[in-house]
């Protein structure tokens, strides 16, 4: 007897996977494929959208063939803001897709702020889409006005391809981080699109994160029942759907998301604490008269520009360790960092400082400092940055949700490092719950799709299946926490403003 399950297509920055999630919230099969972007020049990040689609289709078919008659629907989760522009008639991209890390529109972001007061970051879709239309579609004015040219993020592109062009949609979580979205109307901003010369007809319809949007003709005609950005998928996948609940994903960088509820923010720009409002997810509700309304759920997001990158630096550049696994054993060989502190600012500092000119800083070194002390300091430094993100998010979320003492839930590669997890518990003075899977994005997309298809009666029932792999308690008293956090603040101050021209940039 087959077990009804959800097929999740999960598109990351350097690879993609298809996975099968059953009604107990367990991943029962996974197929992975590397799919790194190309960097033709420094600051440029591109990818082949057709190759991405083909690879996603192939891994999905592989999982379906290994598990016949199990899948009842599909959920798609993806790296956010990566942008594709294509021709509706031919189905072909107009040029290389731009990855979210692409920085070619930095000057456009600066111009938009100085001339129009618009705050864009180069990693958002807005200026990427405008650049692509200008450079790929310079002679396509008529096609643009007719709606023959499509602009979309990865969720939109894959859904359009899987449904053979029938569904041209995105969900609120993906739309909300494009820079083109209005929190007032929950739709595309006519003013912003007008300033950037982006026709509204070229943008997809915005739908709920959890609803059937079409059927995947090449994937057993299964219904596509969820679209959700990767960080929001991780939030849902770790069961963070009550006000104040928080997850942090420690991957290459670090992303904290805190759920705040159904009260919309008043602005969509970055706060003085360095966080951003986000759509956490959106759900459709149908009343007794059959009238469907969409409820949007909100959150705040805080960003760390480098997390796991610091471990790669220890391995590949410094040669202090041979593997990520070795970092835990070596760090655990000493009782403390012996006063050594490391600020993980290899690419600058994100929340709450947003100082692109800050740089990695190692302080407190003595003649007795060993590589074990340095490795431990690096792990503790990333943990301190996690505490910075949490403090900023808690401050900004206080207007929407009463502070709670609920555990912080974490996923990502560094979540499997016990020394790091203990350091995070100590620096945040919170209990840390470790996700049972490294990529909780897969679970979140499954929960949203399964809710739409009736595998679970509600999202709260779906997320109740989440069960942490481990719980780690804070081991420091209040005085010790205060002292270490105070010293940390001094270390961060020393790292800031190292490259003044970059520190002057503000997106």
Q: How would you characterize this protein structure?
A:
- The chain has 507 residues and is an alpha+beta fold.
- It folds into two domains: 5-231, 2-Layer Sandwich (Nucleotidyltransferase, domain 5), CATH 3.30.420; 239-434 and 476-507, 2-Layer Sandwich (Nucleotidyltransferase, domain 5), CATH 3.30.420.40.
- Helices cover 34% and strands 24% of the residues.
- Strand 13 and strand 14 form a beta hairpin.
- Helix 1 packs across helix 5, helix 8 crosses helix 13 (441-453) and helix 11 (371-397) crosses helix 12.
- The longest helix is centred in the C-terminal third of the chain and has 27 residues, at 371-397.
- The protein starts with a strand and ends with a helix.
Corresponding CATH superfamily of the largest domain = ATPase, nucleotide binding domain
Taking the sheet with the most strands, its summary is: 7 strands, mixed
Name the average pLDDT.
95
What is the 3D shape?
globular
Distance between the termini: 54 Å
Helix proportion of residues, in percent?
25-40%
Number of helices: 16
Radius of gyration: 22 Å
Could you tell me the CATH topology label of the largest domain: Nucleotidyltransferase, domain 5
Please provide the count of β strands: 23
Number of domains: 2
> How much of the polypeptide forms β-strand, as a percent range?
15-25%
Low-confidence stretches: none
Q: Structural class of the secondary elements?
A: alpha+beta
